[in-house]
Amino acid sequence: MTFPRDFWLGFRAGLPFLLVIIPFGIVFGVVATEAGLNVTQTMGFSILVIAGAAQFVAVQLLVENAPVLIILATSLAVNLRMAMYSASLAPHLGQIAWWERAVVSYFMVDQAYAAAILKYETSPELTPRQKLAYYMGVVTPVCPMWYGATYGGASLGDMIPAGLPIDFAVPITFLALIVPMLRSLAHVVAALVSIVGVLVFAFVPFNLGLLLAALLAMVAGAETERQMTKRAAR
After folding, report:
1. 212/44 Cα distance (integer angstroms)
2. Do the Cβ atoms of 111 and 21 come closer than 8 Å?
3. Distance from the Cα of residue 95 to its chain's centroid
4. What does the chain look like in DSSP terms, one character per residue?
5. Per-residue pLDDT tens for 44-83?
6. C-alpha pair distances (Å), 137 with each of 6, 46, 87, 112
7. CB under 8 Å to 82, separation ≥6 — which residues?
8. Angstrom distance (rounded) from CA 137 to CA 149
9. Residue 129 neighbours by CB distance under 10 Å
10. pTM here?
């Protein structure tokens, strides 16, 4: 079976993400098993949810014995960005078959979106089929490695030295994704407000401060965009 050139371009774009995906997955596997999940449950979490940030939040709330509704609401709030990703990709992939869109939806991860949307915006001549091939190329090294790293952390976590700083991958992953996407003042304002909000509301139990910070960031970003549009119209 041969794959188109765009698939291999996407595959190559996805390879650098392994530098953070591997330690990220290992950390989750270790944290999940330390929280009381067995290997099967941990793998089910990564395969069914496949959203590292939401998984970390859910496990932390499970450890804190948070109510189920709080866990679900917080995890969904963390993953609201996926809805924005979908809306952003719809003009590019909306013409492919429904089952192909379902596959893309399952593999909607931060790394794939970041690489794909940058490619789509810089290569508007690509057809929907080429864009799909590129997207699937990106996720091919990323997602299977996420499963493998999770399994490694869950099954071999006790063998990892306690002082090994593999948790560095969590913040670096999101910094590497977010910084290139701060392309307007509204983006920068939203990012700054979210940072300040998380710090200010750190005392709120069950990570609900994260929800408050996200809400304030969206409002601030939207208002900045509105003001910029008004000034441009003048």
Report:
1. 29
2. yes
3. 24
4. ----HHHHHHHHHHGGGHHHHHHHHHHHHHHHHHTT--HHHHHHHHHHH--HHHHHHHHHHHHTT--HHHHHHHHHHHTHHHHHHHHHHHHHHTTS-HHHHHHHHHT--HHHHHHHHHHHHH-TT--HHHHHHHHHHHHHHHHHHHHHHHHHHHHHGGGS-TT--GGGHHHHHHHHHHGGG--SHHHHHHHHHHHHHHHHTTTSGGGHHHHHHHHHHHHHHHHHHHHHHHHHH-
5. 999 998 888 888 888 888 888 888 888 888 888 778 778 8
6. 8, 20, 21, 9
7. 51, 108
8. 19
9. 14
10. 0.76
- Joined tokens for residue 208: 């609900």
As given in the structure block, the two tokens for residue 74 are 């917080």
The answer to whether 209 and 77 are in contact (CB under 8 A) is no
Which tokens go with 16?
A: 């650098």
